[in-house]
Amino acid sequence: MQIDYKRDLNHTYVILQEEKEPDTASYQIRMLLTNTIPGLLDCKIGKMDDKTLFYYEVTSKQSLQSVFEQRSIGAEALRKLFEQLLDLLEELGQYLLAPDGLVLQPELVFADANLENFSFCYLPGKQGHTGCFQKQIRELMEYLLPKLDHQEQDAVVLGYGLYREISAEIFSVEMIQALLYQTGKEKKETTEQEGKERPREENPPVQMEETLWGEQEAEAAENFFVEAEEEKDEGRWKNIVEAVICIGFLGGVLALRWTQAETVWYLVLGGAAAVVGIVSLALELVSRWKSGSREQKQEAMGRPQESGNKEKQEMYFRNIRIGRA
Prior knowledge:
By secondary structure, the protein is α+β, with helices and mostly antiparallel strands. It is 59% helix and 11% strand. A 4-stranded antiparallel sheet has the order 1-2-4-3, with no helix packed on it. Helix 7 runs antiparallel to helix 8 and helix 7 packs antiparallel against helix 9. The radius of gyration is 47 Å and the shape is rod-shaped. The two termini are 72 Å apart.
């Protein structure tokens, strides 16, 4: 069998030529040319120098020989290759096409870039002895064995398991299907088990710490603004007290002024204002003493001393976040 390639602007073809001229009117050739069979490459017939040529379109595909020349084959790609090959055997049976017509040479089995879909050549009239298909599939497996990814245990187990079944004295497609099903099921169960054992939260302590810091920060903010409101109210009362003090002193001065005139009512009012002024002064001193004590506590806690200072408030929360980081 002669193998050639032809490329044009938009298409790439692999061309096969049999040594013996095929009968183009045969049932197999008519079925191949008039039907699109899943898994088989599209085929056309051409003539050159009175020779019949079979053109198979392989645009955007690579042969197994090219793909695995510099890389190894894993379990997933190997499983898909043989699953699709067995599916193709069933399709051929529906069209009454003998499996011996398949060409399983590594340079004539093609795959897409992701090794998801595999395509095969079917050469009508390629009649061999009984067991030709088994011989071809065994030779294909012998080619793939050294290409297995020996770092992947599933690939090694599947590869040598397939070779054992293919090389058996009695070739059984059902045994190969059972092996593919069993290894695929075990792989799925292993993956599901690993998913159950894997914790949902990568680092729960960090998340707990994040929550704790968030609560502390919220509590600190709430306390800070509550104290700010209290200080604001105290500021209002301070202003009132200071006003009363001024009035009290003013009343005392007036009282002293009018005592010379011996006016009793002015003396009473002035004395009362003086008493109020003295009491107000005492309250102011007590209030300032309490305010000083609170400011000392705030400094010890690293909080801002003045609630109205926005920059200090921002610095306070920034310190909290830095401590959290």
